[in-house]
Specification:
alpha+beta, 2 domains, disordered N terminus, coiled coil
């Protein structure tokens, strides 16, 4: 009996030892099983909802691609920091739009204007895009003029690194450009802003005085019919005055200048001779301009005449959005002194 009890205790000891040995293994197995289960749970976790981005419109970057001629270089960032919306320009190329099916040449400009925006009045550089409907480029020249410059220059666009280039819509960007027949051409400038610091100040300033040039042979230029001239009398210091040979009298002008002490009595005759000479030169220039225009029309083909007479100018301003000011009272049809006024402002 005692032996049997002894054997039973020994067996119990062996069983207990065996149980203690198996416990870590079971615990390890359980941990591994739990980890695998967790992995299965993680794997079964539903995927995040895919993000959807708004598709870009086919002509969305058109207004930005058009160079804003005459804008000061240090103001360009102020123009582009606003989220301007030119969807009206884009829609004009859609069926039923003003520019649908037309060959169009676009150039940009900016107009500093006082506008009310977000509770305050501020000066903002408002971008505008001018569309010229024409079968050929309206001009390959640029006018450079300002109140600071003594004379006006008409030079080839390429001297200012500008040219008409085809605009490629977004959906056609992967196509070969030479195979596309784009009906949209934009005035582009390849002058890099980073290289401006290496240019002379006068050269940099020329970009700020640039105006897209246009010569309409069927419309008399304002200077051809003007009878008013600017007179610069070369004395020390020199002074400027205006004289209209059909309205004002030279004798009265001279007397007034003497009274205001711009002239002395002994300069009177010399000043009058200077004005008469300037008037003769102005009349000659007007006459030559009229003759040149008449000759150009006579030598022009009927196709070109028809093209000039059918040209249309449209001026586009940004449409109002929550991110941009209301420009309804800021829109003007005037383009520049060469193009005159737009047929329609949109």
């Amino acid at each position: 009996m005692g032996k049997r009890l002894k054997r039973t205790a020994s067996q119990r000891g062996d069983a207990q030892s065996s149980s203690e040995e198996q416990q870590p293994q079971q615990q390890s197995t359980k941990t591994t099983t739990t980890a695998r289960a967790n992995k299965r749970v993680k794997a079964a976790k539903p995927e995040a909802e895919p993000e959807f981005f708004k598709d870009k419109r086919n002509l969305e970057d058109l207004w930005k691609a058009v160079f804003p001629v005459g804008t000061e270089w240090d103001q360009l960032d102020r123009v582009y920091q606003m989220n301007w919306d030119f969807s009206n320009l884009e829609n004009a190329f859609e069926e039923g739009g003003k520019l649908y099916g037309e060959k169009v040449y676009l150039f940009g400009c900016t107009e500093p204007q006082l506008v009310f925006f977000k509770g305050e009045r501020k000066i903002m550089y408002i971008p505008a895009v001018v569309a010229v409907v024409s079968p050929f480029p309206p001009s390959d020249k640029i006018g450079i003029t300002s109140v600071q410059r003594e004379s006006e220059e008409i030079i080839p666009m390429k001297q200012m690194k500008m040219d008409w280039v085809p605009y490629i819509p977004l959906e056609n960007r992967d196509s070969q450009v030479d195979r596309l027949k784009s009906p949209i051409f934009i005035l582009s400038c390849t002058q890099r802003r980073a290289a401006l610091k290496h240019l002379k100040i006068d050269r940099v300033k020329k970009y700020e005085y640039c105006l897209p040039y246009f010569y309409q042979p069927f419309k008399e230029d304002e200077f051809e019919q003007s009878t008013s001239i600017s007179i610069m009398y070369p004395v020390e210091p020199p002074f400027f005055c205006e004289f209209d040979w059909e309205v004002g009298g030279l004798e009265d002008l001279t007397d007034n200048l003497i009274e205001e002490r711009y002239l002395t009595e002994d300069q009177k005759d010399d000043f009058k001779d200077h004005v008469k000479k300037t008037v003769r030169e102005a009349k000659k220039a007007n006459r030559e301009a009229r003759e040149a225009r008449k000759k150009a029309i006579e030598e022009m083909s009927e196709e070109t005449k028809s093209a000039f007479q059918s040209m249309k100018f449209y001026k586009f301003y940004p449409v109002q959005t929550p991110d941009t000011p209301d420009l309804s009272n800021s829109k003007v049809p005037f383009i520049n002194r060469y193009y005159g006024k737009a047929r329609e402002v949109l």
